[in-house]
Design a protein that fits this description.
10 strands, alpha+beta, 2 domains, single chain, elongated, 5-stranded antiparallel beta sheet, 18% helix, Immunoglobulin-like
Length: 190
C-alpha cells in the first residue's frame, strides 16, 4: 500500500500551477504521475523502515517545497540607466513560493519591439557587466539562449540606437524548468 495524493491535493497543485504557461499543464500532469510513482514505491505497512525512510523524511511542507522548485518564475530587476544606447538588466529565477531559486537553468531571452513578442529588427542582447550567467548562442542578436549562474541570476545588456521602448521576454527551452513566461520588462531608450 502506497501513500497517495488525494484528489484535493492534486487539484491544489494544479490550481497553484495555473499561474504558469498554459501549455505547461502537460508537464505538470507528468510531474504528478512521476511523483505518485515515487510515492507508490515507498513501502508502507504501518511502520517505517529506518534503513529505507527516516521518520519525518516526507512531510507536506517538504513535498510542497520540492514541487515549488519545479515551477519557476522570472523576476526582472529594475533596468539600469541608459548609457551609450545600452541598458543593463538582471533577472532572477524564483520558485512558485517567490524564493530565489539557487540553480542554473537554460533560457531563451528575446528583445522585442512590442510587449507581445516578435524579435526586434534593431535591438540586440549581449552579456551584462555583472557577468552572472552565460550566453550560449545568439550574443549580439535579438534572440539568445543563455544559462543562469548557480544562483539563478542572469545579467544582460540591451543595445538600441532608436528612441523607443523595447521589451525583454523569456521563453523556456531544453533544460528549462516549468517556466512562467508572463513577466516582461520594458526598457525605455531615449
Amino acid at each position: 500500500m502506497g501513500i497517495a495524493l488525494t484528489d484535493e491535493e492534486k487539484a491544489a497543485l494544479r490550481r497553484d500551477a495555473s499561474i504558469f504557461e498554459a501549455n505547461s499543464s502537460q508537464h505538470l500532469d507528468q510531474l504528478l504521475i512521476d511523483l505518485q510513482d515515487q510515492i507508490d514505491a515507498i513501502p508502507v505497512d504501518g511502520t517505517v523502515d529506518a534503513d529505507a525512510l527516516a521518520a519525518g523524511a516526507v512531510t507536506a511542507v517538504k513535498l510542497a517545497d520540492a514541487v515549488a522548485d519545479l515551477l519557476v518564475a522570472v523576476d526582472w530587476g529594475a533596468p539600469g540607466a541608459e548609457a551609450a544606447n545600452k541598458i543593463e538588466v538582471q533577472l532572477q529565477l524564483d520558485d512558485a513560493q517567490g524564493n530565489a531559486l539557487a540553480e542554473s537553468h537554460v533560457l531563451e531571452v528575446h528583445v522585442s519591439d512590442t510587449a507581445t513578442g516578435g524579435d526586434s529588427a534593431t535591438a540586440t542582447i549581449s552579456d551584462g557587466a555583472g557577468a552572472a550567467g552565460t550566453i550560449i548562442s545568439g550574443d549580439g542578436t535579438a534572440a539568445i539562449r543563455a544559462t543562469t549562474d548557480a544562483s539563478g541570476h542572469l545579467d544582460l545588456e540591451v543595445s538600441e540606437a532608436a528612441a523607443a521602448s523595447r521589451y525583454l521576454i523569456v521563453r523556456p527551452c531544453y533544460g528549462s524548468p516549468l517556466l512562467d513566461c508572463r513577466e516582461t520588462v520594458e526598457l525605455a531608450f531615449t
